Amino acid sequence: MASSPILIVGIVGSLREPSYTRMAVCIALAGAAERGAATKLIDLREYRLPFCDGSGKEDVGFPDVLRLREEVAAAHGVILGTPDYHGSFSGVLKNALDLMGFNEFGGKVMGLVGVAGGALGTVNALNDLRKVGRSLHAWVIPQQAAVPQAWKHFDDTGRLDDPEYETRLREVGQEVARFATLLNSDEVRHFLDLWEQAMPNPGGEGR
Ligand SMILES: Cc1cc2nc3c(=O)[nH]c(=O)nc-3n(C[C@H](O)[C@H](O)[C@H](O)COP(=O)(O)O)c2cc1C
């Protein structure tokens, strides 16, 4: 159905080791794999990135900027994972996103997952991230998953004690893969071609 194999990447917005965010992103990616997607974990700990200074020259002396951009640009869908930091998503993740833009995210399906130390979870962090996804022109899916009190629910191997959290994380990955497959299907491409050939403003002449 799709014109090329679907690739979903998961970006881990925590540099900590061990990271519950990383564990959550891995589970979401497993969900994407269940839908037949190839997956890749992008662990920002493994990238030496500068702060985005708006110059557009951040890649000078930092080849990992180009590596990150290329890896995300190659994906059909993206899962962003963040810890809750002071009621929002992490600066590490924001900086990585600021080093990229429409080239990497425009028209892509995006899913959001988060973890928190506290009981309230990451609702605000994920809502903030949703706005950023919109500004990057990504299609942010309505499903999202959060694990509050992550220290209590994950074990050392990344397994969750609560099947409901596990299911929700997997569902985010499954939905990202499902919509990425749909968006990249030959049938949808054909439909979009027809759409683009349509009159710019049907019935609107002379008004
Ligand atoms: C700077 C900072 C701010 C944090 N703020 C919050 C917060 O507002 N609410 C909360 O529930 N947890 C907060 N936490 C706890 C983290 O969400 C928690 O430790 C989480 O597991 C970190 O993700 P990680 O395991 O992937 O590094 C904060 C942690 C740090 C380091």
What is the spatial order of strands in the main beta sheet?
2-1-3-4-5
- Beta content comes to 15-25%
By CATH reckoning, the class would read: Alpha Beta
Total number of beta strands: 5
Computed Rg: 18 Å
Tally the helices: 8
Structure, explained:
- There is one protein chain.
- With 207 residues, the protein is of the alpha/beta class.
- It is built from eight helices and five strands.
- The mean pLDDT is 93.
- The protein binds flavin mononucleotide.
- Flavin mononucleotide binds at residues 14, 16, 19-21, 83-87, 115-118, 150.
In brief:
With 207 residues, the protein is of the alpha/beta class.
Question: How would you describe this structure in keywords?
Answer:
207 residues, alpha/beta, Rossmann fold, five-stranded parallel sheet, binds flavin mononucleotide
Topology:
Blueprint lengths: L6 E6 L7 H15 L3 E6 L19 H11 L3 E7 L7 H8 L3 H4 L3 E7 L7 H13 L3 E9 L2 H4 L9 H21 L2 H12 L10
Parallel strand pairs: 1-2, 1-3, 3-4, 4-5
Helix pairs in contact: 1-7
The protein binds flavin mononucleotide.
